[in-house]
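TICKET: design request
STATUS: open
ATTACHED STRUCTURE:
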């Protein structure tokens, strides 16, 4: 609904929506971040502590943002939320995280680091980090109980394994993430 649109400024008397001084759109009580314009040129943004959910396509295609500070209360990142944020460099998510949607960080070409804090019980859905070519540093301290199909396909992490002629299963945390190459057999570790 807001793809490729200008910042949104909401009248304070509006009963359903609110915005901040930059034109970032939220629901009225600022628990859901709805839209961060691809026209905003700030390199960094701190999401308010009240936000528990980042809506579908909220930051999509912003070519300027390099750093987003996520609130501790964040539980859900919807599909395509950061898709094609080509300069985003690192993602550090707190222990309340429960869900990362399909293609949420798809094609974030400069994304190098992913950290999910201990205590999280995150579900990482299909293709969540697809084509994040620079993503090599993945630290998942939480209990990731599901990693969807091709969640880390096309990442630097996967490429590094292939270049070392690794053949077999690979894991993120203790969750089987995929298989590289054509191994003679696959052994799945305990966990």
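STATUS: resolved
RESOLUTION: sequence designed for all positions
ATTACHED SEQUENCE:
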């Amino acid at each position: 609904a807001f793809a490729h649109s200008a910042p949104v400024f909401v009248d304070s008397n509006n009963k359903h929506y609110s915005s901040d001084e930059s034109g970032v759109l939220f629901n009225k009580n600022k628990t859901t971040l709805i839209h961060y314009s691809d026209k905003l040129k700030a390199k960094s943004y701190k999401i308010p502590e009240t936000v528990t959910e980042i809506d579908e396509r909220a930051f999509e295609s912003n070519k300027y943002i390099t750093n987003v500070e996520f609130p501790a209360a964040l539980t859900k990142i919807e599909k395509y939320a950061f898709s094609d944020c080509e300069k985003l460099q690192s993602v550090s998510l707190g222990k309340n995280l429960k869900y990362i949607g399909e293609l949420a960080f798809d094609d974030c070409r400069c994304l190098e680091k992913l950290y999910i804090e201990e205590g999280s019980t995150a579900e990482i859905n299909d293709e969540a980090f697809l084509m994040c070519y620079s993503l090599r540093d993945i630290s998942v301290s939480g209990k990731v109980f599901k990693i969807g199909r091709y969640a880390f396909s096309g990442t630097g992490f996967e490429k590094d394994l292939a270049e070392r002629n690794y053949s077999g299963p690979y894991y993120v945390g203790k969750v089987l993430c995929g298989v590289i190459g054509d191994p003679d057999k696959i052994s799945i570790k305990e966990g």
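CLOSING REMARK: The chain has a mean pLDDT of 87. The helical segments are 156-163.
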